[in-house]
Write the structure tokens for this entry.
Amino acid sequence: MKGYLPTGVITAIVTPFKSDSSIDFKAFEKLIEFQIKNKADGIVVTGSTGEGATLSIKEKIALYVTAVEIANKRIPIIAGTGSNDTKATIELSMLAKDAGVDALLLVAPYYNKPTQVALFNHFMAINEMVDIPQIIYNVPSRTGVNIASPIQALIARKCKNVVATKEASGDLMQIMEIIDTAPKNFIVLSGDDALTLPMISLGAKGVISVFSNFAPKQLKTIVDYAMANDYEKARQAHYKYLKMMDLCFIESNPAPVKSIMDQMGMIEEHLRLPLIPISPENAEILKAELKKLKFI
């Protein structure tokens, strides 16, 4: 199947809200233009960082349509359409495809705790019904279930539309097993900013990132050096920004990155319950590191 292959720095973009919790589409447009200007390689809309769990289907479709229109083929748009309901995931994925997105990001079904065989059946069902490039999203810390390396490799072999995985398990042994056993054209992406450099050294092809919401150029420097096998320069940049990457998770994502972006004047710091803005103490910690790195 011909289509988009996700590589490089892909930003899991935040969803900006107004004070009344409605979506701030003007700010959303500015964020997309910022990613394009700073040479990001793709944008994920309504992922975990985009607070997809608290967006209605109508809102998600509006964001997909808006992102596709603004991007105007200048940057690939990936829709986070995964849920814990296979039927609902298929329906939303079809709508996202109709909206013109380039690919889908499919989180492992959360809460249900499906078996490994059930996980395979879930991804196969989506693959058979929606003919568009698809990315597995394995994030056990949020879903309560890990998609083990043998099942990811099997999905890669059997599901023609599944072209990549976003691996956020943090398990380097599992990640190496996927790279080693999946088809050679199957792309592994880091799901953790801080693990991007070591994962590329093992064979990953990029990252789906939180940090790049406000620092796409900086993260792209690390990725580009690593992909060119210039690991000395990649390491220098990696360690320069490592603390900031870690601080993006000082509280539940995306609260810290929204605080950062508010401090940088990019958006207003509004989240939807059950998430709330970070504590004043943690905001000061972020501010100090932002000043140190000259972001503000």
The beta strands are 8-12, 42-45, 77-80, 103-107, 134-138, 162-167, 187-190, 206-209.
